[in-house]
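Here comes an entry:

___
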Amino acid sequence: MKINSGHEALTDDQLLALIDPTRLPRHVAIIMDGNGRWAETRGLPRIAGHHEGIQSVRDAVTACRELGIYALTIYAFSMENWQRPQDEVKELMMLLEGYLQKEMPALMEHRIRFKTIGRIHRLPDSVVHWIREAESATSANDQMVLTIALSYGGRAEIVDAILKLYDDLQQGVFPRESVDEALVGQYLTTADLPDPDLMIRTSGETRISNFLLWQMAYTELYFTPTLWPDFRRRDFLLALIDYQHRERRFGQVKTPPHPRRKVRQG
């Protein structure tokens, strides 16, 4: 949960000075929530919120790149989102296609590798084309990984992994006795990434909505009432500062140092 730290009154430079570069997350995941509500409160069509949210994506990517955070994964379109009105889905697909085309130069300039996770085959052919173009063009980039979850569901990802693993078991690729958590992780779409250290969700909702269910077993969760289009660089810095106040034990008990015994004199 978000900690009320009193840092909200600080300037961006003051917030940046509080960041400990040795305690940054390697991987940040974000559920970008609140685009529709942002637009509705302004009397605008819902798609206007999605357009404004693009700048928040840019701010998050830039912050990660400048701070040296290796991976950023954003939840852009869930499998459940296919149930939204057809016009909104169509506009979202057009927005995604435009984003991929416009951001390619920046991805290449800053050596950011682009990848997607999810059942991409359900997306329109033109969107899939630009996804594959971006993945191919940036495949050798090594400074950061930007992953967009599209037509994604955590349960569906686990099902797909189980089916692939089962096929390999049937073909004798490895013995049944070798199946463990590490092996299952190799069949997930995030196999080439560390598990998220920090998950941010905007708009005040406090659930993970079928996002990276396997990967977030020990992820620190940060919920903020800020709507995604209003979530900019300083909001990202506040989330990082909150994260750095957490004590991550991964189920273990932190052992306090043993007090020194006093040596008796004489």
